[in-house]
Amino acid sequence: MIHIVFNEPDIEVLGKAIEMDESLAGEINIIRDDYAVGPLELINTPEGAAARKDWWRRVLEGGDYEGKSVDGIVDDEKVLLSIAEALTNDEHESVWIWAAQNKHDVCGYYWLVSQLAAFQGRIHILYLNNLPFINEKGNIFYPDWLSQIPTKEFLKAKKLARPITTSEFEVDGDEWNKICAQGSMVRLLEGGKKILHKEVNFYDTDLSRFIMPEAQKASKIIHSFLSKSKETTGDAFLLWRLKTMIQQNEKYEIIGKMGAMKDFEIKKKTAVETAE
Questions:
Q1: How are beta strands 216-217 and 264-268 bridged, if at all?
Q2: Which pLDDT tens digit goes with each residue over 241-275?
Q3: In this structure, what is the dihedral angle of CA atoms 99, 102, 108, 110, given to the nearest 10 degrees?
Q4: 10 Å Cβ neighbour count for 71?
Q5: CA-CA distances (angstroms) from residue 56 to 63, 74, 97?
Q6: Which of 8, 13, 229, 232 is nearest to 103 (CA)?
Q7: If you ran DSSP here, which 8-state letter would residue 117 be given?
Q8: Out of 50, 116, 172, 202, which could bridge 186 as a Cys pair, Cβ 3.0 to 4.6 Å?
């Protein structure tokens, strides 16, 4: 059995579940790219894939994750080739895709489905869409991320595994092509598996609300945004947007050298400072 998740914390919780239930035994693979942001046009071509990689390089440049797009850590194509090879060499091998109801997992799912159509009947999905679970305090909750589910509840989730149907491969594969053709840079999840498309500056307005007249580390601004905003995304993308906003708007002041999140502070200029 081959497991696929989309977030680093999911590896740990799934690993603990496997330790408790040997029927889940298998290799855990992670799809690391965040397909909810960035260019996707012609991504299945060498030119499109290279364009996306170059975009991530520019986004991560000078930040906390600089080099991650080119050092081999994020290489979904390599992971996919390994999975395809395992499925080809062993006709009894199967894949379980674990996804929660968030834009990151769902966009990753669409990409995977478009790549694994040749192995129909052996690809299973566990989509935890609007399903209630019991948290550590015994209360019912609806998780947005797999890692939020306690291990014992995770074991119950395995009952939801089902083969992805031929129709789903066709419909969801077409949906992925439509997503790529939209030309958007930010994708949101409206509900179910419906993706909404937004401009690259979608998060800027909400992010700017956390820039105060008092100087704050960029890391604090991003943390405040992530903890209080309804729609969020990865901190690397947010740092890039924060830097872009500062460079394009004179009402913000930088203290320190703009680099990683804790390297510099930002404050909103007063009316007098802006006039000067």
A1: antiparallel
A2: 999 999 998 899 999 999 999 999 999 987 545 55
A3: 90
A4: 9
A5: 11, 10, 25
A6: 232
A7: G
A8: 202
pLDDT digits (tens, 9 = 90+) for 140-199: 988 889 998 888 887 888 888 899 999 999 999 999 999 999 999 999 999 889 999 999
Distance (Å, rounded) from C-alpha 64 to C-alpha 239? 9
Local structure of 78: helix, strand or coil: helix
Angle between helices 103-115 and 166-181 (to 10 degrees): 110
**Residue in 86, 90, 97 with CA at minimum distance from that of residue 30:** 97
> Given the DSSP bridges, would you call strands 2-5 and 27-30 parallel, antiparallel or unpaired?
parallel
Give the Å distances, CA to CA, from 255 to 34, 106, 207: 30, 38, 18
Contact 73, 32 (CB under 8 A): yes
> What is the phi/psi pair of residue 190, to 5°?
-80, -30
**Tokens for 237?**
């993308």
Alpha helices in 143-249 (DSSP H): 151-157, 166-181, 204-208, 218-228, 235-248
